[in-house]
Each structure stands twice: as C-alpha cells, then as structure tokens.
Design brief:
mainly beta, 2 helices, efflux transmembrane transporter activity, Multidrug resistance protein MdtA-like C-terminal permuted SH3 domain-containing protein
C-alpha cells in the first residue's frame, strides 16, 4: 500500500507548486500597480536649502613647478663695431654695470682752401667717432654673443645676463580665471619636498602664446603658434629660499574673504560671476513652483558662493538649478559668455 501512497503525495505537492508558479507569472497582485517605479539614482523629491550666514574664503591653488628665470638680453644701441669689453665672459655683474663699448667711426671730408697763388689746399679732418656703452639689464652672470671688432646694428643682441633666480609657474583653468579677477600681488608657495610654505611677491597672471615645433621626415621644420588662450601664473621665488628647477609647487592665491555674509551652494545658482539666478521657494508645500530671482554674487570657494544682494538669511531656495540635472559639454577650459557654466580640461561642465 505504501508503494502507492508516497507517489501520490509527491504528485499532489508538484501540482500545488505548479499552480503557485502559474499564479505568480500570469496573475500578479493588483497592489503592485500602485507602486511608482523610481529610476535608481534619481531623487523623486525636490531638494531645497536655506540661505545661511557664514564665512567664505576665495583661495585658488594652482599646481605648477619651479623654473629658472630666463636670461635677459642686452641690445646694441649703435650701428658700429665692438671696441672693447668692460667685463669678461662669465663675470657676475650688477644691474646697470657696463658690459661692452661700441664704436662708430665716420670719415669726414677734408676742408678745401686756396693758397696765396690760388692753388687749392686740402686739409684733413679727423674722423667723427661715436661711442655707446651697453649696460647690464639685470644682475647675474653675463654671456657675450659678439667678439671684438664685430659689426653691430641697433637692436642686435650682443649679450645676455642670467639672473640665477627662480620662479614658480603654473597655468589656470577658465573657471579659476573668474575667481582671480581681483587677484592680489602676492601668493603662498608650497614646494614639494622643500622648505615650509613661504610668501612670494610680484605675482603676475596673464595669457601667453603657446608655440610648438615639429620636424617632418623630410627634415622640414614647422612652427605652430597657439591662440594665446593659455593663462599663466608666475611668482618670483625669494632669494633666501633654496629651490631647484623642476620641483613641483602649489601656488596658493588668496583672492579675498568675507565673514558673516550670506552664502549658498554653487549648485543652487545659475551663473558664478557678478550676477546669477536662484529659485526661491514661496510655497513650502509646493517647492516645484519656486520663482526665479536674480541675485548679486560675490566671491566663491568653489563649493559655496557669496550673495550680496537679492536674498535674505533664512530664505528657502532650490538646491539645484532646474533642468540642469544633465551636465553640459563645451570647449575645454572655457566658460559660457554669460558665466552660466565652465568646462574642465575634458570639456565637461564643472558643477
């Protein structure tokens, strides 16, 4: 009898499982249709933030390296010849010290007169000699590009002086340029593996042309000059600091700070310079109905931005600019003309 009972029980269990699977596959629970499908990574709620008062510092750190300052040229100021040298090659000179002397000899026509008998008499006239001194344009070690008695022309480089000094140099991106529109004249240099951070003065920021030279298989040399959009930051290293060319350095530029001022996240503002737009929540129950409002902007630290006009402490605004959930792309290291977006070296929007 047991031989027939056990197979029957197994068959019944298999039928029950099969019916359950059919129910799940073809007749799902009706309550499932009432659950909204939320795409992973998307916040279905509208996020807001509150305008607060705080402190903000606009410090831009520029990565660069230590470079030796280029030699300074000394040019001839006379069309003549090299008469003599005031110092020898490799000498250490100070700015304004004579380097060499130039000489221009111009023969003069003799004067003609007559004697008592009316015969012409020529009297020689001494040559006109003009002298010019070439001075050291800066202090350093001198090298000469000419030899004695060599002819010179005005503007010709006759010597160079290597100052033996160093500078910290780096390049900045388009969005960093906006943060440095009112840059100071000094910066803090942090040399990797070097001395403690120290201050440098004479900070300069400006565009420079980029030039590249290529040589083809035929030996033809091609020089390409860029459009001058590379912005260079350069600051002299003080003479009492020991550094070496090629060392990595961080140039810290403090472009301003503010205390107890209104600040908001940069993600909440459309635009980053001078003027911007925020979306103010007028009805807490309906943040999606926030109204667009123009505000005046101050400094930024890259995460927060100062608001000098247009908002009050405690105002509730949208945390993110509407319809800006997808990052834009553009020309690398540039910004939109209205300042609404800037792009990194890969052309991706900096949020």
């Amino acid at each position: 009898m047991k031989r027939y009972v056990l197979p029957t029980i197994k068959i019944l269990i298999a039928l029950i499982v099969a019916v359950a699977l059919v129910k799940i596959a073809f007749f799902p629970d009706s309550n499932d249709g009432t659950t909204a499908e939320i795409e992973p990574g998307i916040d279905s709620s509208t996020q807001t933030t509150v305008v607060t008062a705080g402190d903000i510092t606009n410090t831009v750190d520029v990565k660069g390296q230590v470079v030796e300052d280029a030699a300074v040229e000394a040019q001839a100021t006379l069309n003549g010849v090299v008469d003599s040298f005031a110092v020898g090659k490799g000498a250490t000179v100070t700015q304004g010290e004579p380097l060499l002397y130039l000489k221009l000899v111009e023969p003069q026509e003799p004067t003609v007169s007559t004697d008592e008998e009316g015969n012409p008499i020529q009297t020689p006239v001494e040559d006109k000699v003009t002298w010019s001194t070439v001075y050291a344009p800066t202090s350093g070690v001198v090298s000469f590009n000419v030899i004695q008695d060599q002819e010179t022309s005005v503007g010709m480089v006759v010597a160079t002086v290597s100052p033996g000094t160093y500078s910290a140099k780096g390049t900045i991106t388009a969005d960093q340029q906006y943060r440095l529109t009112n840059a100071p004249s000094s910066a803090t240099l942090t040399v990797e593996g070097g001395p403690a951070p120290f201050e440098c003065t004479g900070l300069k920021i400006g565009t420079r042309e980029t030039t590249s030279t290529t040589t083809s298989e035929t030996g033809q040399v091609t020089t390409t000059t860029g459009d001058g959009t590379t912005v260079e930051v350069r600051c002299p290293v003080p003479s009492d600091q020991q550094v070496f060319p090629g060392l990595s350095v961080t140039i810290g530029i403090d472009a301003g700070s503010a205390t107890d001022t209104l600040i908001v996240p940069v993600t909440a503002v459309e635009g980053t310079v001078t003027k911007g737009n925020v979306w103010v929540v007028t009805d807490p129950a309906d943040p999606d109905a926030a109204e667009k409002r123009e505000v005046t902007l101050g400094i930024t630290d890259g995460e927060s931005v100062q608001v000098t006009d247009g908002l009050a402490e405690g105002d509730e605004i949208l945390l993110f600019v509407p319809n800006k959930d997808i990052a834009r792309t553009g020309e690398p290291n540039t910004c939109e003309p209205d300042g609404s977006a800037c792009y990194d070296e890969n052309g991706e929007e900096i949020l």
